[in-house]
Amino acid sequence: MRKLNNKWVIITILYLILLISSFAITYAYYVSQKAYGITLQTGEFEVEIFISFDNNAILIDSPYYDQEKNVVLVNSYDPNSENYIGKLKISVLITPAVAARVRFKIMDEWELTRTYLDQNPEYPVDPVVESIYHTAKDETYYPFSLLKVDPTFDVKFDLDSYAYFNDVLQHGKPRMIHLIDGGDRFLVRSNNIFEETVYIKLGFLIEVVQANRIVELWGIDQTFYTE
User: Fold this and answer.
1) Which of 2, 15, 6 shows the shortest CA–CA distance to 45?
2) How far are the Cα atoms of 46, 59, 162 from residue 64, in angstroms, in the given order?
3) What is the per-residue pLDDT across 139-165, written as a single tens digit (0 to 9) for each?
4) Highest mean pLDDT among 36-40, 74-78, 211-215
């Protein structure tokens, strides 16, 4: 087995980038040394992210993927929509060439739009757009979100907003990790004056590092996983 060198080896997965087949997509944005001062060895880790609504995989040309902003669009208010939050599933397949640790960060931006109806064309009122923030819920939810974590998602959350997977990934052994399994509906208002919609812009950050380098690279205590 080829050893890693002494520099930081990391894979960052940011959103939806590369289509691999009709059944799955890989989100693979590789961080450059120039931009972040790190060295990436693409041969050490293979990462794939699988996203679907009601078991229909999101493809690169999906209407629910914003190619310009590299985010997945999720409807959080209408259970009848194809991309409704309750139909969402997210999983990650990681195949490391060395023993590795992985941490995740889900970046979910919730946006409410209130559109006013029956306006006077001479005095139009622009839609009102607001960001929505959530309070912390129980352990079945991703922190400060209405997204529900999969029951098998065995992680430890820290103050840095990362979810640290508890197991060490063994070299050469693919590991499927299920992250999100649905979510709660956000109730909106609709009347004769205005109607509201709420959408989520969903992105991901996944970091995989050599297992014995977590203290140095992530800045966490050696006893983090045993506390």
Assistant:
1) 2
2) 25, 9, 25
3) 999 999 999 999 999 999 887 788 999
4) 74-78
Q: What percent of the chain shows pLDDT beyond 70?
A: 81
Chain position carrying tokens 């880790």 = 45
Which one has a higher pLDDT value, 80 or 30? 80
Give the span between the Cα atoms of 203 and 72, in whole angstroms. Answer: 7
Nearest to 186 by CA among 107, 80, 79, 98: 79
CA dihedral of residues 28, 33, 34, 36 (deg, nearest 10): 80
* 201 DSSP β-pair partners: 73, 109
Residues contacting 18, CB < 8 A, separation 6+: 25, 26, 27, 28, 60
User: Which residues, including other chains, have CB under 8 Å from residue 9's CB and lie 6 or more apart?
Assistant: 38, 39, 40, 41, 44, 45, 209, 210, 213
Measured CA to CA, the distance from residue 127 to residue 188 in angstroms comes to 15
Amino acid letter, residue 166: N
Tell me what the mean pLDDT of segment 68-94 comes to: 92
Does the pLDDT at position 168 exceed 90?
A: yes
* 30 SS3 class: coil
Name the CA radius of gyration of the chain, rounded: 20
Alpha helices by DSSP H, listed for the chain, are 33-36, 214-218
